[in-house]
Amino acid sequence: MSDLMYKIHSTFIEGDRWKYLTNGLKTTLIITFFAVLLGMVLGFLIAIVRATHDKTGKMKIANFFAKIYLTVIRGTPVMVQLLIIYYVIFASVRIDKTFVGILAFGLNSAAYVAEIFRSGIMSIDNGQFEAGASLGLNYRKTMMYIIMPQAFKNVLPALGNECIVLLKETSVAGYIALEDLTKGGDIIRSVTYEAFLPLIAVALIYLIIVMFLTMLVSRLERRLAKSDRG
Amino acid sequence: MKKLLNVLTAGMLITVCFTGCGVPKNTVHSSDDLKGKVIGTQLGTTGYIFAGDIENAKVEGYNKGADAIQALKQGKIDAVIIDSEPAQEFVNKNKGLQILPDVFAEEEYSIAYKKGNDELGKKIDDALTKLKENGKLDEITSHWVGNDPDRVSYVPEKDMERTGVLVMATNAEFPPYESMENGEIVGIDVDMMNAVCDELGLKLKIDNMEFDSIIAAVNSGKADVGVAGMSVTPEREKNVSFTQGYASTKQVIVVRED
Amino acid sequence: MIEVNDLKKSFGDLHILKGITTKIEKGEKVVVIGPSGSGKSTFLRCLNRLEQPTSGSIIFEGEDLTKASEKRLYEIREKMGMVFQHFHLFPHLSIIRNLTLAPVKLGLMSQAEAEKSARAMLKKVGLADKENAFPNQLSGGQKQRIAIARALVMNPDVMLFDEPTSALDPEMVGEVLNLMKQLADEGMTMVVVTHEMGFAREVASRVVFIDQGVIAEENTPEEFFTNPQNPRLQQFLSKVL
Description:
- The complex is a heterotrimer.
- In chain A, 81% of the residues lie in helices and 0% in strands.
- Chain A is mainly α.
- The termini of chain A are far apart.
- Chain B is an alpha/beta fold.
- Chain B has nine helices and eleven strands.
- Chains in contact: A-B, A-C.
- At the A-C interface, α6 and α7 of A face α2, β6 and α3 of C.
């Protein structure tokens, strides 16, 4: 028992090592938050392009590029993308690494969000488009006021899930020496050569955040479901 | 939507532009210049710990020494503090880098084993003592350090009865101590452990993993020893045991050429 | 009001409409009947260009729909109310918002004006108490009456009905047909695709029989039902009556 107390002391308290975890957590949350934001906005735009092409046959060129983007991003691991953005695209530039992380994870997430949104749009009955059109609402207005609100509600669980996946995926940020939560634990391990406590602590922190996010998503779902009773 | 496309194209052009931009000039000429600079190290090396003590310096811990060197070449960081032999290897293989004459700190590499496994520790310790006395360890080291080593410094004895297996955890990205060559893990640590195993009558099995996984592997019993150019610090000795040192090394500063 | 000239529509090699020519006058109530797959629904959907005709012209209030720009097309549709077999109410919006969405978003009315007009329509279709309900809380017949009210709020010149009672349970057909009769009595121009022969006989000013992509026969309901000429119509009527 005193051995464990001693290990806890050396892992977290000595030399203020807990700060590696709290600072790392801060970085992880910042990256996740802005990456989710970037991913949602970009993914939404790509989904609109893709769905518009699917529905109307327009936007051929934009759809072509969107498809290439999706293929490349979904066909390569996020860690490799991160390294490419840091070492190849931003070669020879001193660039804020948090920004690189946000960019890499945001661009990656956008590809998945785009397909989530697209499937949400495609899952809406074509009759809804026709009803909008028959009332004189053009494609853009029908999309905005009739299709997207329904599609968004349908894909909300999948979007929430994507946020959770993204949060966990940021754990590879350490590869570009970004001191995120996982790296914070790694730093403690490298100093103390004690694996158990830092890893468990890091895992617990991720778990708590994920549980919190899951709770938020289900609460939001319930609120949206109110408009669709029966 | 065309606007979006234009923005994307512009973005790509800008990034291409970034790629072409020049690397900043070297600003570090001695260890005193490190103050306030961005210093890259390999996480888990003593370089990382020492760099933390430099005034106002921003320390970045990379997972691999090679990544830190890459960042240095691209001008993302100002200097890399790393063990002297790997530093020499990196400078040999990458143009435009130099090692500063300042020695940052001296240290010894040791073999790590699980706390409480003193029987094994004692055996290895004795074997190391023997290898030091009969000059074999020097022979191995001198083969690997230098400009044109023949890369085979120690051949394990063939006709020998081996009573068990010794699993060695390492990270083969730390030349000349351990690195991959033609699909095999080679280096000072490998040859030394082969020699140790010959002394003990054991068969050597090498497990290649990430550097920061090595101690976890040793402590969880997945590996018997961790041999990866690991230096001893009082902090680490609390959680893992070390044999006597088998090589002394220094931390040096690698910077871009002027 | 609507002039259809040699209207053709094909999906690939499948020729659904093979040249339809007819004229719908203001105030007329045209009921379109025909066997399934005859192209009657496609004909109706071509009238507001939900289906793009392959050739031919549709002149609505002096303007050729087949040549109208996309922007103009949406403006024309404001004047052509449409009621679908499966209602297509907007499930995420309350009933009142279902009715006010289009006029408000199109800038035709303010929210207050639209709500006033919507309430009047809800009263007219007998569902004034449902304004804050959601579509999924309504029965099929109620849904279809709301769908009609939604089209009426736009103040259309003509109403198109695409099998409005086919998806309803039998006991709910009456309430929808009664509402349509009421509309007809008020003088609304209507084109109705339906299988309800009683409705055709009672309400129609003209009945059109579409078979194999062409108008096989059209006449006043009395002549149409008592004295059919076309042998396929005779056969069809003998099955449905």
